[in-house]
Amino acid sequence: MNLPEDIELKIDADSNKDLSGVIVQMKVKAGRKNPYFIYFPKTGPDGVARLSKKEFVGQFKDHWEMGLMDYNGTPEDADPGVEVALFGPSWLIENKKLALAWPLLEHEKQRWASREQQYNYMVNNNNNHYSCDTISVNLEKIQNIVLRVNEL
Q: Which of 8, 24, 28, 152 has the fewest CB atoms within 10 Å distance of its CB?
């Protein structure tokens, strides 16, 4: 895949509410094994979040470090067609002890001081206020993703 330098995500909702604190994930297929999940940072009040190419590749490499037997493929050979949806924190919340058992991975160390800090960031979001359908996007054709959400 020929990744853009930055991918912009915009949450679109009917209200004029503060749209901050929403985490969106991309499901990326590369190789023949499990898909990779890449997370945008939380949205700002305007519902916008940006993911840099460096951050995308860093998260991709962390998947490799986490489980070499479970993943194969590279960002370069990844399918540019990705699935975009709201991140669901329920597994993390239900399995906190297991989620905190992992040490920080190489790329995560650049962003987080501890696994606890990363965990708290991921589970303390505003995703439970919204629902949306998963959308498919080709990252080689579009760098500005609009995710339409419904308020719950």
A: 152
